[in-house]
User: What shape does this take?
Amino acid sequence: MDDAITLVPAEPEDALAAAKLWVDAFHDKFLHALGQDPAPALEEWLQCSPGTFAHTTFARRGDDVLGCIQIYTAQEGAQDDVRAIWRIARRRLGLRRAISCMARFWVMDSYRIPKNELYVKTLSVDPAWRGHGIGARLLDYADAEARARGLSVVGLHVITENEGAIRFYERHGYRRSPKQGVWLGRWAADFDGCYKMTKCLTPERRAPHRS
Assistant: This one.
């Protein structure tokens, strides 16, 4: 890992960088919900919904954003600013398609977070920087945040077709549950369901106290 890479909270002016990373990570989701070239609409939504960035951390190298992670707890929830999405979707897509857009977002983002879980809603790394340990560092950050908040589980979802991501998470201690959401997934974003993947955190060992 490059020592010059740091993890820092995202800022509202980072909306374009976040939009590009999210579209790359969830291209089918945003394509089906927001139409062709979804990045501009997503950037506009993020600019109108700065609260989203309160839960987002970037991996940076100088001025370049190399990856991001977005985490939530049950107390914080993982719901987006519905009114902002609706206004943007209606203006860009028209009433009928905007209703479809909102329904698709609801299907894909309706997960209720358990009280003992830190939920990773988004993890994305710039394709040019994959293989440099950035994703692993972001997952380590999620583990540390969960422990700091007294939570015992880190969870996320991954579509069944994304075999590379599944292997990546399994290498880092995550285990998958049975496939879920097949029919709704096909309608919402043309994917064949998803896996809920969880990692149970073991208590950190402390050095024995010496008097």
